[in-house]
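Support request from a user on the community tier.

User writes: "When I paste my structure tokens into the form, the page sometimes reloads and wipes my input. The last time it worked, I copied everything first. Here is what I submitted, just in case something in the input itself triggers the reload:"
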């Protein structure tokens, strides 16, 4: 799960950087990168939720 959290963190940082570039500079390409990153984050976050619930309930 540690590796998954690291991947989420790295992709989240990329998302924030691109989203801010779109917001602050009107960079359309950055908006595309942010949207792509958000699509990649979704399954990772769902997997984290599943693993987190399993860890909380004691399952492996």
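"...and here is what came back when it finally went through:"
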């Amino acid at each position: 799960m540690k590796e998954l959290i690291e991947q989420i963190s790295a992709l989240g940082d990329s998302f924030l950087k691109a989203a801010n570039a779109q917001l602050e500079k009107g960079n359309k390409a950055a908006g595309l990168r942010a949207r792509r990153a958000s699509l990649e984050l979704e399954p990772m976050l769902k997997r984290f939720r599943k693993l987190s619930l399993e860890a909380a309930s004691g399952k492996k």
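Agent notes: The reload is a front-end session timeout and is unrelated to the input. The chain has two helices and no strands. Residues 2-57 form one domain. Escalated to web team.
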